[in-house]
Amino acid sequence: MIKQILSKLPRKSQKSDSLDSGGIDCGNHTSSSSGNGVQCTNIGNSISSRLSVVKRVSSAVFPASIMAGVEAVEPNLSFKDVSNPQKQNLFISKLNLCCEVSDFSDPDKATAEQDLKHQTLTELVDFVSLGSAKFNEPAIAAMCKMCATNLFRVFPPKSRSNSTSGEAEDEEPMFDPGWSDLQLVYDLLLRFVSYSSLDAKVAKKYVDHSFILRLLDLFESEDPRERDCLKTILHRVYGKFMVHRPFVRKAVSNIIYRFVFETERHNGIAELLEIFGSIISGFAIPLKEEHKIFLWRALIPLHKPKSVGVYHQQLTYCVVQFIDKDPKLANGVIKGLLKYWPVTNSQKELMFISELEEILEITSMVDFQQIMIPLFRRIACCLNSSHYQVAERAHLLWNNDHVLNLITHNRQVIFPLILPALEQNSRDHWNQAVLNLTQNIRKMFCEMDEELMLACQRKLEEEKSQLNEAAEKRKLTWERLETAACFQPAADNIMPPVKPAACAVAC
Q1: Helix (H, G, I), strand (E, B) or coil at 164
Q2: Phi, then psi, of 135 in degrees rounded to 5
Q3: Which of the chain's termini has less CB crowding within 10 Å, N or C?
Q4: Which parts of the chain sit beneath pLDDT 70?
């Protein structure tokens, strides 16, 4: 009975079995019949395998399985036209719609798709700003995918090679033609990372190290509006995702190393330092060794590039924040300044003197005494500078009460270093304002310690007389040598020609 029932069941054909067992046999049979069939079959297999690889890579970053339970909603609908349960699905659909990148290279070529995308982005910003969005995992994945598609791009080398040292202070900034859409995307990203109910544990799977590195690459943008948005977003990312903080610090350090020691080209150093200024102010005391290494290896060498004027204000703030956290660092910072002190760049020298004054204001007496001799040798050179602004700025250090107090307590060492520069200015400097400042400092020294001032002047006069005597001796020595050379016969100074040795072999 059972055999009769089984015999009536339909069986699979051998052909279908062979097809299901493996596509390789099918390809081989085709190759035996036609050569073209081999080529088409192999190409088809190759393309399908490549597409599957791309799909696997894409799904690893933004998994399609996350969207499996999301009901598809027509993205052109308005949030007002759907019920509250469907608004979240419409939000995701609109994010997916905005993943198409628009081409703004031709400003006259405005298409309906660009207008639709701009309108959709505006709706998304309004929806998120009202607090209606719920950032569950599908929404987080869609948001990160949309931001990555629209923001992450490679800037053309041509735009970065116009200047040898990044964006100079007197250059006109370049504005991105697609900023109208980019601004909305940045606004969405900022509201996303600042969302109070955002679960950082879920979001860190998508805002990962790769996402942060691509975000840091965008600081190369020549549009200052974009760098300003990036500055705010990166600061919020640093505050929201504590697990990424060491990575962010390391990545920024690598950018600075590459800028200082390799390219000297980067448009976003000022913005990165501005972020770090607020980060440094939050460092715990005592400072970790990692933070001190960042000061010595990244911040101090940043004084070296020619374009330091673009970011010097932010750099000074970071350095002062470090010394404020640990005053013992002042000694090493001043040594670093002296190491990179400019010799021929007067504008850079003015910036260094201003930074030095800020550092001295928070320097203790003990640390000052360890560095005061090389420091005031450099200040003496600045007092004698032929550039009147450098000389004037160096004289104005004496108007700072804290600096004057440090000088007063260590006048036995500082007066002999400074007085020769003041004497030389009184005799030789061409600028009247500098001459007046020099006279004021001389009077200040006399009122501070007249006996020491007179002793330094006497010692200076003795040194001058000794130098004059040494110069006179050298002059007399040269005169005696010249006289002796005149009496020496000229023939005695000529060497007789040397005859070549005779060749023993006849040519």
Answers
A1: strand
A2: -90, 80
A3: C
A4: 1-73, 103-110, 158-171, 488-507
Specify the pLDDT at position 148.
Answer: 94
Contact yes or no for 214/255 (Cβ under 8 A):
no
Closest-CA residue to 331 (of 374, 273, 291, 288): 374
Which tokens in the block code for residue 331?
């000694």
Tokens of 417: 């270093």
Count CA within 13 A, CB hemisphere, residue 174.
15
Between CA 188 and CA 135 the distance in angstroms is: 12
H or E element at residue 132? none
Evaluated on CA atoms 352, 354, 355, 361, the torsion sign reads positive
| Count of CB atoms situated within 10 Å of the CB of 302 | 20
Query: Do 347 and 309 meet the contact criterion of CB atoms below 8 Å apart?
Result: yes
Distance CA 424, CA 373 (A): 19
Would you give the distance in Å from CA 137 to the centre of its chain?
Answer: 33
Whole-prediction pTM: 0.77
**pLDDT for position 197:** 84
- CA dihedral (340, 341, 347, 352) in degrees, to 10, reads 90
Q: Are 411 and 449 in contact (CB under 8 A)?
A: yes
Q: How far is residue 74 from each of residues 82, 120, 383, measured CA to CA in Å?
A: 10, 12, 74
Residue type, 256: I
Per-residue pLDDT at 188: 94
Exposure of 296 by Cβ count < 10 A (0-12 exposed, 13-18 middle, 19+ buried)?
middle
Task: Answer whether 100's CB lies under 8 Å from 117's CB.
Answer: yes
CA atoms lying within 13 Å on the CB side of residue 506? 0
pLDDT for position 35:
41
Residue type, position 439, single letter: Q
CA distances from 42 to 24, 27, 37, 54, 148 (A): 10, 8, 8, 19, 35
- State the number of CA atoms in the 13 A half-sphere of 164 facing the CB: 2
Task: Please report how many Cα atoms fall inside a 13 Å half-sphere around the Cα of residue 434, on the Cβ side.
Answer: 24
CA 279 to chain CA centroid, Å, is 15
What is the predicted pLDDT for the residue at 79? 82
Q: In what helix (H) or strand (E) does residue 344 lie, and over which residues does it extend?
A: none
Q: Are the beta carbons of 209 and 178 closer than 8 angstroms?
A: no
Question: How many CA atoms are closer than 13 Å to the CA of 102, on its beta-carbon side?
Answer: 24
CA distance to 230, 296, 320, 344, per residue, from 383 (Å): 42, 28, 25, 15
pLDDT for res 502: 56
Phi, psi of 377 (to 5 degrees): -65, -40
The strand pairing partners of 164, in sequence order, are: 166
Query: What's the confidence (pLDDT) of residue 158?
Result: 54
Which candidate, 310, 356, 307, places its Cα nearest to that of 330? 356
352 near 398, Cβ under 8 Å?
Answer: no
Whole-number pLDDT of residue 39: 41
Centroid of chain to Cα 392: 32
